[in-house]
Design goal:
This protein is α/β, with parallel strands linked by helices and about 575 residues long. The chain is built from 17 helices and 21 strands. Helix 2 packs parallel to helix 16, helix 4 crosses helix 8 and helix 5 packs antiparallel against helix 6.
Length: about 575
């Protein structure tokens, strides 16, 4: 597939695979999970103690699952449904095998901590049909009314290859790409930290677009425009242009935008199966215990109030009016919930952490799917011999159209449109059917011979994450100058330096991570919170398997001056 990886970096089978090991916090979460010693233990006197876990998305369910295995009793609160932004839905009146991924739908192999849990619950993955991926039959790039059909990047006009080469050169010249990529493959912590410390200081105030403009390789406005609309990897990058270039570098260093896999049957199965899973290695609780059984089948409802009470405890009020007090809590919902939907005491967090939450910048995102009778796009045009329809990247309203099937004779789905930011806001006032009509019109201009409508067998399903009351956005994306805020949120699990009246509640979730928008970030911050809760209760890790807090002083994120 076309890739964000510069062609100068030649990978061989002998090299270690890339993982999300850094660059901000180079800790081996995959090794931590794989070690037979486990994630740690708490004193027996604390066994059975209740810990609130607020949010039943991937981060919350993993935190609850691992805390349960240690012998604690997680009490999960969920406002909507288990899964969060791992949300898989069906189509009314259609076969149950037809599903649509309204949130996360593609996962890179570098998400190795995530893969641990995918394997644990026995889920399968398959290649996701990104533009120009080897598994994607064909791709159409349609810009300014001109369409180009391609199976590989070599089928596109030379200007597209020029843009790809400009991006590779820009990364190499401005961000030490080859050196960092190699250091991360080798898990060379000193080298990672050396390179990243320099780049954070140099680039924290720079936008993605400004980074391109400063590169000699991208001096052409036309090249920057094409790159914004088409990109390389999953598609266009222009919705990220105002964001911090550090956010983009984290993605490309870890190859998070490459070689994607989808979860067969839908990603929501992962948190649901963990909710139901009965671990074979568990402390205090009898075999056969699961999160589901500890909750009598259902999590507690939405949290409406959080406040501190005597003894530095965390008191939780839920939508049913029930009030419970806990010695510790893990908050995994999007942090804006603490500013709006949940009544909170200021004393829950230090003022600098409140500031960081208030400054968090979320990106909007919309999708619309339709079910179809079969993967008709694989039919051949009699005149050209090409696929009659292709994975489509365009500057029209749809932006990205993905074709998803399970075989030539089975019903299939089309993601008619996947958009972000301003492109997403354009859809916000429209109903699902209104959105579909606009999308079919746009695609009809690209594929005048194809009657997509005649293949549709059910009503469309759609989501605009900015309009979801318990999310208010799709995922966090730092703006220039936000590094310090993100550092405060990510490092919040290290609480020994906080006043005692600010301890005991731990932030987790992908927006707390350095890699928001990727499920791996949700997993990693969940594991940080698990370590934090364990430490809060006086627990320890096994000497052979130090946790993220044990190694923190050696790998702590770069600290920029606050003055």
């Amino acid at each position: 597939m076309t890739s964000t990886v510069p062609t100068a970096v030649q990978h061989t089978d002998a090299q270690p695979p890339i993982t999300m090991f850094g660059p901000d916090f180079p800790y081996a979460y995959d090794d931590f999970l794989a070690n037979p010693a486990g994630l740690g233990q708490i004193p027996a006197t604390e066994h059975g103690t209740e810990v609130a876990v607020i949010g039943g998305g991937l981060s919350g369910i993993i935190a609850a699952y691992e805390l349960m295995k240690m012998g604690l009793k997680p009490v999960v609160y969920e406002a909507d449904q288990i899964g969060g932004r791992l949300r898989t839905v069906g189509f009314e009146g259609c076969d149950e095998s037809l599903t649509a991924e309204m949130g996360a739908m593609r996962f890179p192999p570098s998400s190795t901590a995530l893969q641990h849990y995918i394997d644990l619950v026995g889920l399968e993955t398959k290649a996701f049909p990104n533009p120009l991926a080897p598994e994607t039959p064909s791709t159409i790039v349609d810009l300014k009314g001109e369409s180009h059909y391609a199976v590989t990047v070599d089928d596109l006009p030379q200007v597209y290859r020029d843009v790809m080469n400009a991006w590779n050169a820009c990364l190499e010249e401005g961000a030490d790409f080859s050196d960092m990529n190699q250091a991360m493959r080798e898990r060379d912590v000193p080298r990672i930290r050396e390179i990243w410390a320099t780049l954070v200081e140099k680039l924290d105030n720079q936008t993605f677009y400004g980074f391109l403009c400063e590169s000699e390789a991208f001096k052409s406005f036309r090249h920057r425009e094409i790159f914004g609309q088409v990109g390389f990897g999953t598609g266009g990058w222009d919705t990220d242009f105002p964001n911090s270039i550090l956010e983009i570098l984290r993605v490309v260093y870890t190859e998070a935008d490459d070689h994607h896999r989808g979860i067969v049957g839908g990603s929501q199965q992962l948190p649901v199966r963990l909710w139901e899973r009965e671990p074979q290695k568990i402390v205090h609780w009898p075999l056969g215990t699961s999160l589901k059984s500890l909750h009598d089948g259902q999590p507690k409802p939405a949290v409406t109030r959080l406040h501190r009470t005597a003894g530095n405890r965390i008191t939780v009020t839920d939508a049913s009016g029930d009030i419970r007090t806990y010695p510790a809590a893990v908050f995994t919902a999007q942090s804006w919930m603490l500013l709006s939907k949940i009544a909170c005491d200021d004393s829950l967090f230090p003022i600098d952490h409140w500031t960081a939450m208030e400054r968090t910048h979320y990106m909007e995102s919309s999708k619309l799917f339709v079910p179809v009778d079969r993967p008709f796009w694989l039919d051949k045009d009699e005149e050209t011999g090409r696929d009659v329809m292709s994975m489509t990247l365009t500057d029209r309203m749809t932006r990205g159209t993905y074709l998803l099937d399970d075989g030539p004779d089975k019903p299939a789905t089309i993601c008619l449109s996947y958009t972000w930011c301003d492109d997403s806001l354009k859809w916000l006032p429209l109903s699902a059917n209104e959105r579909m009509e606009v999308m079919l019109k746009s695609l009809g201009e690209i594929y005048p011979k194809v009657d997509i409508r005649k293949h549709i067998i059910g009503n469309p399903v759609t989501v605009s994450w900015e309009n979801e009351p318990y999310f208010m956005g799709a995922f966090k994306a730092n703006l220039p100058g936000h590094y310090r805020y993100q550092r405060r949120l990510f490092t919040h699990f290290m609480q020994d330096s906080l006043p005692e009246d600010k301890r005991g509640i731990f932030l987790a979730g992908d927006d707390i991570s350095w890699t928001a928008g990727w499920a791996e970030g949700a997993v990693q911050t969940a594991l940080n919170a698990v370590w934090g809760v364990m430490h809060h209760f006086g627990g320890t890790t096994d000497p052979t398997n130090p946790g993220p807090g044990d190694l923190y002083d050696e790998i702590a994120p770069v600290e920029l001056p606050e003055d």
